[in-house]
Specification:
elongated; 7 helices
């Protein structure tokens, strides 16, 4: 590596982007090269001045750029769209809630195992709760299939 590559590594160090694996090699070169030491001291001074100096001039933005920027009207429109989408999400949640609880609109339960445990009280009139099947028995539908 030549001095230019070491100076790139030193510049990266000043910016906090140096590679820890190359640090020892860079330090060894810096200890033996007076030109790179002088360059590093000058670069460190410039970096320190730039980071601590106060901006004294005002940044001017052209009228064309300001005209192209989104204004308050667009911000209000985006806010209204967000509120509408949030309300739509709440409505969808509320409409989907009875389905996820295992109940139907007519008050009967679905056939899922989860619904049978949570929806056991909602049965059509005139039906009774059957006793649980024993492990060796088959349901009527299973017997009919063969």
């Amino acid at each position: 590596m030549g001095c230019d590559e070491f100076r790139e590594a030193l510049s990266a160090r000043l910016d906090g982007e140096d590679d820890p694996a190359e640090r020892a090699v860079t330090d060894a070169h810096l200890a033996g090269c007076a030109a790179c030491r002088q360059w590093f001291d000058a670069a460190a001074q410039v970096t320190r001045m730039v980071r601590t100096s106060v901006v004294t001039h005002e940044v001017k933005v052209s009228d064309a750029v300001l005209a192209a920027a989104p204004g308050r009207r667009r911000a209000r429109l985006l806010g209204a769209v967000r509120v509408a989408l949030g309300a739509l999400g709440v409505v969808q949640f509320l409409l989907g809630r009875p389905r996820s609880a295992g109940s139907r609109r007519d008050g009967t339960c679905t056939r899922s195992a989860w619904a049978r445990t949570t929806c056991g009280t909602s049965r059509p009139p005139g039906t009774s709760r059957s006793a649980p099947a024993s492990p060796g028995s088959r349901s009527a539908a299973a017997r009919a299939r063969g």
